[in-house]
Specification:
Elements: E1 40-59, E2 62-74, E3 85-96, E4 106-115, E5 129-137
Parallel strand pairs: 3-5
Antiparallel strand pairs: 1-2, 1-4, 2-3, 4-5
Length: about 140
Amino acid sequence: MASLLAVALPAVAKPAPRAHPDHGRARHTRTMRSNKCTATDSAYRASGMLMSWNASRTGRHTYTGTVTVRTRSASHTAASSKRSVASYTFTNAHVSFSHSPKRGDRVVLIGKITRFAGRCANHGAAGRVTIRKIDVTAAKR
């Protein structure tokens, strides 16, 4: 005869699944903020013909002042100033030229432009251009 051994085990209920499992990710707290609407600096490059130059020397190869340029070509981020006359203010920018700048010389402006994502409401500093380098060369004759 076969004997049956029966063991009684208590029933254990499976816990209910959590509504939003975190899968090992860090939980958001008040100190964690999104970086989507923070200001970022993008490359800015514009070149064209010098219209006016008003700058004073602040150090070796550095100048502070304003320059007005008829822009002929520009990077993607400087597209708004392309084919127009734009005035730029610069502070302690590295300037290289072989002669005194005069109207009609070729100019290259290199710097950064402050940008925000398009969906952000705070655009206070958007479009601010910071020029760090200016190259002036004689016009082709």
